[in-house]
Amino acid sequence: MENNNPVGGKAELANANQPKEGSRASSRNLADKLEEKLSAAEVVPGDDPSVVRSAADPLASSNPFVVFVLGGPGCGKGTNCARISKDFGFVHLSTGDLLRDEVKKGSEIGREAKAIMEQGLLLDDSIVLRLLKKAMTAAVVEGKESKFLVDGYPRSLEQAHMFEKEICPVSLVLYFDASDAAMTERILERGKTSGRVDDNIETIGKRLRTFHDCTEPAVKFYSRLGKLRRVPADGTLDDVYSLAQHVFQPAAIEAVHDLNLFEKK
């Protein structure tokens, strides 16, 4: 029986972690090279030689509390994540931002990723996963809270399974449930000033179909597990946030911690 737990009544980079579509054979060499660089990359940020990587996995030992934040394009994920991060002390991670940062820095990883995407190809799921793990581990090593909002990931049930297998179990899934009409209207309005080439009616339709076909199965999966918290998201930004913040009140988070500990026994 499904339990949605309702609460209250650039473009290429942004879409780089979309689920697999067709053959990626022509990008395999670049992708393999990029994975090698990520495997060898130091997760400790900065150049301070006094900071030494622990032999143990610092991320796993921190017992991270991970919230997947899902919803269709234009549902308000990024805006709400920024507010939740500020108000409740979560580390906000967006795969699109992580990729943009690598490209902006001109790192080897960024150059390789850019080359793949400029060919109109998709980064392999494992590469995006490694970027996430690298960022999460760096946050823990820096002494930040081991509480993470993973914005817009997973894009598919397969990605969800990969994350839980390779990194850690997810504690909660926050789902901003907006209608296609509301999301389309917001994106078109944003497109007037964003400069994003994917903020147009044709691309919006494709992105919505991808969400319904690929991401909604993950939403339903976590609903069946009782981990989904659904937030109606057709209202104003303030109205939606007033509902979303209830998920992160201390009593609600403590209840999730208790349930997770019970499930591990």
From TrEMBL:
<feature type="region of interest" description="Disordered">
    <location>
        <begin position="1"/>
        <end position="31"/>
    </location>
</feature>
<dbReference type="Pfam" id="PF00406">
    <property type="entry name" value="ADK"/>
</dbReference>
<comment type="similarity">
    <text>Belongs to the adenylate kinase family.</text>
</comment>
<feature type="compositionally biased region" description="Polar residues">
    <location>
        <begin position="15"/>
        <end position="29"/>
    </location>
</feature>
<dbReference type="InterPro" id="IPR000850">
    <property type="entry name" value="Adenylat/UMP-CMP_kin"/>
</dbReference>
<dbReference type="GO" id="GO:0019205">
    <property type="term" value="F:nucleobase-containing compound kinase activity"/>
</dbReference>
<keyword id="KW-0418">Kinase</keyword>
<protein>
    <submittedName>
        <fullName>Adenylate kinase</fullName>
    </submittedName>
</protein>
<keyword id="KW-0547">Nucleotide-binding</keyword>
<dbReference type="InterPro" id="IPR033690">
    <property type="entry name" value="Adenylat_kinase_CS"/>
</dbReference>
<keyword id="KW-0808">Transferase</keyword>
<dbReference type="GO" id="GO:0006139">
    <property type="term" value="P:nucleobase-containing compound metabolic process"/>
</dbReference>
<dbReference type="InterPro" id="IPR027417">
    <property type="entry name" value="P-loop_NTPase"/>
</dbReference>
<dbReference type="GO" id="GO:0005524">
    <property type="term" value="F:ATP binding"/>
</dbReference>
